[in-house]
Amino acid sequence: MQYQNKSLGKAFDIIESLCEVPQTATELARGLGLNQTTLHRFLVTLLESGIVEKLPTNKYRMSYKFIDLGKMAENHYDLVGDSRPFLEALAKESGESVLISTFHNFSVSYLSKVESSQTVRIVLGPGDRVPSYTVASGKLFLAHLNESLLETYLRTVQLEKKTNNTITEKQLLLDELALIRKQGYAIDNQEYLIGLKGMAAPIYDSSGTVVAALSVAGVEIRLDPEKTEATINQLVNYAKKISYTLGWSD
Q1: Average pLDDT over residues 60-76
Q2: Number of structural domains, the chain?
Q3: Strand-pair category, 210-219 with 52-54
Q4: Domain assignment of residue 204, yes or no
Q5: In contact, 214 and 93? CB cutoff 8 Å
């Protein structure tokens, strides 16, 4: 028999509700199905703890102490370390190299990599930086920029041809980014290096912000359409698993 602390559960219900929007006691009671006496008892405890505060409008909201506690907890998350088991599992399942990357100054930076077991492998790895428009992870990050930042990127970055497959026309790139947002993943087909094919899926934090990309990369000849489709499914699944460890929920 599973033990449940109903009082603690109700307290978390109140906290979750106040995280969405400040509310009066009446609004809270109505939304949570609690009577005023029970709700008052919980609110007094939460006010005394300092994680809830009462506004002059008689509405309650989460306090800065609660926000600070969240930031302290966030510091315990280690993206590279926490994601390592997932990278290793994905590399084993896909048979290709797997990487974690972030986005800085409009460029992709690779943080971690698990090598493929194949004899012929990709050359990119931790410490390398590449133009965003040429690789799957970079296009993924660009697809999730707000309109203003994307306009700045397109205005300041010259889309130079790296291979014959590189997207160098702004409208074609915008069309590609729209497709990425729609399908939830990105692909590059020898757009940075001839023979290199990559796929990337977003990693989200607790706020739903894309904070990193999970990528699979390999030699194009090994990644035929059937293998590519299977790998994308694996990739998206593991990207979600890593996102869950960062507090994301879909």
Answers
A1: 74
A2: 2
A3: unpaired
A4: yes
A5: no
Is 184 a domain residue?
yes
Domain range enclosing 29: 6-74
Whether residue 250 lies inside any domain: the answer is no
pLDDT band at 6 (very low <50, low <70, confident <90, very high): confident
* Residue ranges in 50-205 assigned as alpha helix (H): 64-74, 79-94, 136-143, 147-156, 170-183
Amino acid at 220: E
User: What is the per-residue pLDDT across 148-176, written as a single tens digit (0 to 9) for each?
Assistant: 899 999 998 999 999 999 999 999 999 99
What's the token pair of residue 234? 């694996």
CA distance 200 to 141: 10
Q: Which residues of 148-174 are buried (b: 16+ CB within 10 A; e: fewer)?
A: eebeebeeeeebeebeebbbeeeeebe
DSSP 8-state assignment for residue 133: G
User: What is the pTM (predicted TM-score) of this model?
Assistant: 0.68
